[in-house]
Every structure is written in C-alpha cells, then in structure tokens.
Write a structure and sequence with these properties.
The chain has 157 residues and is α+β, with helices and mostly antiparallel strands. The protein contains 3 helices and 8 strands. Strands 1, 2, 3, 4, 5, 6, 7 and 8 form an 8-stranded antiparallel β-sheet that branches.
Length: 157
C-alpha cells in the first residue's frame, strides 16, 4: 500500500468498516477483463475468517463466470465526505474502504436459508427480519470466502 499512514491493519477495524457498507463490488474474470458487479451482501466472521454472502436470480452471467473461474476480488467503501477549502484551492475526499480477494462458492438449497439470514443482518442489525421463504426457490445464493483483505481510511485531523 503506497500510503501506509492510511492503512487499517487490525481485522476488527476492517470488519467494522465492512459493517458500515451497504454495497460490495465483486470482480470476476471475463476472458481477460474484470466483470464488476455491485451487490448487496451479508457477512459472517468467525475468528479471522470472513465470508461474504450474496443473492440473485437463478441464472446469469456471473454464475457462468464463477463456474469457469471462481477467483474474485471485492471492494466496498463508506464514510464519504467531500472536504474543500476554497481559499487554498484544496479539495479532498474522506473515506473508509476495504479490498480483498478470495474464491466464490455457489451454495446448495440446504444452505440458502441461513445464508439469507446472514445477508439480512447487514441491513437489519437490530434483529431478525422475517423474509418470505416463498422466494427461496427463485433465488440463488453464493458466497465469497475471503483469503486476503486490506483496509484504508482517510480522515482529516
């Protein structure tokens, strides 16, 4: 990382940034070009292991790409604040971000319900959200098993 003064090294702090985010962008390999998708996500952390959960339609390009090459990169960011000082002609952006790599797994029907509960916790942290199980047969659930993660933060002093 070029700006080591902005690096977030502690995993608990990285997870705290991720908890504030509402979109995770994943990048899959598409014949030499990244195929990037912004997705809603859920997160499960057990010790130093992070898994990110996603859902979507039953078919689509992302599943074809995952089957060909299940490696993925991801990015999420939050806490954006534009800082300007007109007198100095100065402009910068405050932010927190996380990037990482891992591998994708498409989950079985038996794993769907718990994965969807994990996903819902990202958006309803105060408690269980009773989602309709009628949509489950029309929903594919997949996860990214994180193998490498780094965080970065820029805040004014």
């Amino acid at each position: 990382m070029r700006r080591s003064d902005r690096e977030v090294k502690d995993l608990k702090d990285i997870v705290a940034i991720m908890e504030k985010c509402d979109v995770c962008r994943i990048a899959l390999n598409d014949e030499g070009y990244p195929y990037i998708l912004p997705l809603n996500f859920g997160m499960d952390v057990q010790g130093d292991k992070i898994e990110l959960y996603f859902h979507g339609a039953l078919e689509g390009r992302k599943y074809d790409l995952i089957r060909k090459d299940n490696r993925a990169s991801f990015e999420m960011d939050c806490e954006h604040n534009l800082v300007t000082e007109a007198g100095r002609g100065y402009c910068t952006m405050e932010y927190e971000s996380v990037i990482g790599q891992g591998h994708m797994e498409i989950l079985s029907d038996d794993e769907k319900e718990e994965a969807l509960r994990i996903l819902m916790r990202q958006y309803h942290p105060a408690g269980e959200f009773p989602f309709s199980k009628a949509a489950m047969p029309r929903t594919k659930v997949f996860k990214l098993v994180v193998e490498k993660v780094t965080g970065k933060r820029k805040k004014r002093k």
